[in-house]
């Protein structure tokens, strides 16, 4: 039996449903129904809602445009009387000149441009981009985690990226930054990574590999981040970034002895000299007369291409460099003494030899580095690039190759006779004989003893001396470092990856033993499927394998192919995210909060996904996050 209150509630519910269907709003008094307002109140709100959503759409599009371009939004003084209210408000003012409805809303008190509103809209947009990435990772079923750290003003930022496949196409995506300034030990770093993956919703997916830059806290085989990751994800093999390892090889070769070190010190001095406001225009003007425009780079052990760019720029603009130094080496230029010293060093034979030698050597390494930095490079392709690089370096390590390089260096030196220059043999003066340590007298020395300075021999020609002093030590160091740094687990896995991409069933046992259980791959069926695919395809190509895998007739091979494409090569994507971070968080924006920095970088780095955001999706999410309180601007029907 219903109580009076129950009957009253049922009656009101019945009338409420009728009002929603017919647009009638029921107003109740203490005694029941007082009046029926025959007006479609909800419909009366629709023009205002449409107007607000249209205005918000334009604001959001302007925000997303600036986020994609990495442009600063705010100004130092955003008051109406300020001459410069910041990029965002000034852009809104420009836009309002062509849209009267937009201008009217912008002049209102609740104009959707406040700092907190900007942060909330950007965070919603970043969440949408991130959720799309996470959705694709979940569809793939497993992923690789890529992590590196870099300094950002007074804090340490850790970038987290993922590698996966989407429609059998390799994708490497940036997910966000994590502030790792508080603690830098392995436990704290891994907990930050773990919490980030949990917050992203992919911590329960299998991690098939982890790729870092090789720091001890990340890569050590005892109590490091990679060991802690293996405890939670046994399939997450550690792969040292191959681009980073190749850079370490190059750094060692560039410091092989005092001759090489002195050469790069001279390059750094040239860069510092021509970076001054008084000298740089003269250098550019001298290049302009020759029809070239090249820039030197500051040398760094962490910038992979800086040495190649600087050596190439100096070699190809040497005439402009000499004419500029000659002009600046006389008074009244206040730094003419420095210009004289650089001019003397540049025209010496040892500088010319070093320039030509490192130009040839660095060109080989530069090609390999560019290939390893591509996002769609597979582990087998990376190993193939490294093998070709080693073969090329070995082919250069013969006397005939050195004779050609020496002849080129001599011709290059002959072109630099605008001022008196040292003789061809100068710079290779005889040095004192370095005695070997007594306990090494009866030993076979299998590795280098610190820097490789050759022993003087008065009977050698200048070419032979330079070959023993620079050319062959550089090549020996490159080959020795490649052999020691690239003989690891990643090369063994690469053989199995190559077998998958060549559809060779006999070579995939390495992958199956590691991943079959975790990824639910039937080993026997995988072998059979690969044999069938090999019979069906006239030629084994990656595109042909993708077409065969996309038919869903070979589920086990499809997983193997996804796995082969997901295993990483390097952390170039992480390094690119740091480049984006430094573009966005510059010295004028150093007080930016952590969440805002991560959101802006995500929208900037993944600009292709930002481009596809529907502004109405952001508006709906913004209206839904009101916390139970209505927004000042209506965006949804009451």
UniProtKB/TrEMBL annotation:
Q: Which Pfam families match?
A: Dimer_Tnp_hAT, DUF4371
Question: Which InterPro entries does the record associate with it?
Answer: DUF4371 (IPR025398), HATC_C_dom (IPR008906), RNaseH-like_sf (IPR012337)
Q: Which GO terms describe its molecular function?
A: protein dimerization activity
Which residues does the UniProt record annotate as the domain DUF4371? 65-223
Q: Which SUPFAM superfamilies match?
A: Ribonuclease H-like
In Swiss-Prot or TrEMBL terms, this protein is called Uncharacterized protein
Membrane-spanning regions, if any?
none
- Domain HAT C-terminal dimerisation residue range list: 551-609
């Amino acid at each position: 039996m219903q109580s009076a209150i129950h009957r009253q509630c049922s009656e009101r519910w019945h009338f409420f449903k009728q009002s929603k269907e017919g647009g009638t709003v029921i107003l109740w008094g203490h005694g029941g129904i007082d009046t029926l307002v025959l007006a479609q109140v909800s419909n009366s709100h629709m023009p205002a809602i449409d107007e607000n959503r249209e205005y918000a759409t334009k604001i959001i599009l302007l925000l997303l445009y600036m986020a994609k371009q990495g442009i600063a939004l705010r100004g130092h003084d955003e008051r109406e009387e300020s001459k410069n209210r910041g990029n965002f408000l000034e852009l809104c003012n420009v836009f309002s000149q062509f849209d009267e409805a937009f201008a009217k809303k912008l002049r209102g008190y609740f104009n959707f441009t406040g700092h907190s509103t900007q942060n909330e809209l950007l965070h919603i947009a970043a969440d949408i981009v991130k959720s799309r990435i996470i959705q694709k990772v979940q569809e793939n079923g497993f992923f690789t985690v890529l992590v590196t750290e870099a300094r950002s003003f007074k804090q340490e930022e850790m970038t987290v990226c993922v590698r996966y496949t989407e429609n059998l196409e390799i994708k490497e995506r940036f997910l966000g930054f994590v502030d790792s300034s508080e603690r830098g030990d392995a436990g704290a770093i891994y907990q930050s990574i773990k919490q980030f993956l949990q917050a992203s919703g992919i911590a329960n997916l299998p991690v098939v590999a982890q790729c870092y830059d090789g720091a001890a806290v990340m890569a050590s085989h005892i109590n490091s981040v990679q060991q802690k990751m293996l405890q939670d994800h046994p399939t997450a093999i550690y792969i040292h970034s191959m681009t980073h390892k190749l850079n370490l090889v190059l750094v060692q070769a560039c410091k092989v002895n005092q001759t090489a070190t002195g050469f790069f010190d001279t390059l750094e001095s040239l860069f510092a000299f021509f970076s001054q406001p008084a000298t740089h225009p003269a250098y550019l003007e001298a290049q302009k007369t020759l029809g070239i425009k090249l820039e030197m780079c500051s040398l760094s052990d962490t910038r992979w291409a800086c040495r190649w760019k600087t050596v190439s720029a100096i070699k190809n603009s040497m005439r402009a460099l000499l004419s500029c130094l000659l002009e600046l080496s006389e008074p009244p230029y206040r730094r003419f003494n420095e210009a004289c010293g650089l001019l003397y060093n540049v025209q010496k034979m040892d500088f010319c030899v070093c320039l030509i030698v490192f130009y040839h050597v660095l060109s080989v390494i530069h090609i390999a580095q560019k290939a390893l930095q591509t996002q769609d490079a597979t582990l087998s392709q990376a190993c193939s690039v490294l093998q070709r690089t080693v073969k090329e370096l070995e082919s250069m390590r013969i006397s005939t190759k050195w004779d050609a390089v020496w002849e080129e260096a001599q011709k290059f030196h002959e072109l630099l006779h605008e001022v008196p220059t040292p003789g061809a043999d100068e710079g290779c003066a005889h040095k004192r004989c370095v005695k070997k340590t007594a306990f090494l007298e009866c030993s076979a020395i299998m590795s280098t003893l610190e820097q490789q300075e050759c022993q003087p021999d008065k009977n050698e020609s200048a070419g032979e001396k330079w070959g023993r002093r620079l050319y062959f030590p550089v090549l020996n160091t490159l080959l020795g470092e490649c052999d020691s740094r690239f003989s690891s687990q990643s090369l063994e896995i690469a053989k199995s990856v190559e077998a998958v991409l060549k559809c060779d069933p006999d070579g995939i046992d390495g992958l199956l033993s590691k991943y079959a259980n975790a990824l639910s791959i039937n080993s026997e069926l995988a072998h059979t499927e690969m044999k069938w695919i090999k019979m069906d395809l006239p030629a084994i190509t990656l595109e042909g394998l993708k077409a065969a895998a996309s038919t869903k007739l070979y589920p086990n091979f499809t997983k193997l192919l996804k796995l082969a494409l997901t295993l990483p090569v390097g952390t170039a994507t992480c390094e690119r995210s740091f480049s984006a971070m430094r573009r966005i968080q510059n010295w004028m924006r150093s007080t930016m909060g952590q969440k805002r920095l991560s959101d802006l970088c995500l929208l900037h780095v993944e600009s292709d996904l930002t481009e596809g955001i529907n502004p109405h999706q952001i508006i709906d999410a913004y209206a839904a996050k009101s916390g139970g309180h209505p927004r000042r601007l209506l965006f949804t029907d009451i």
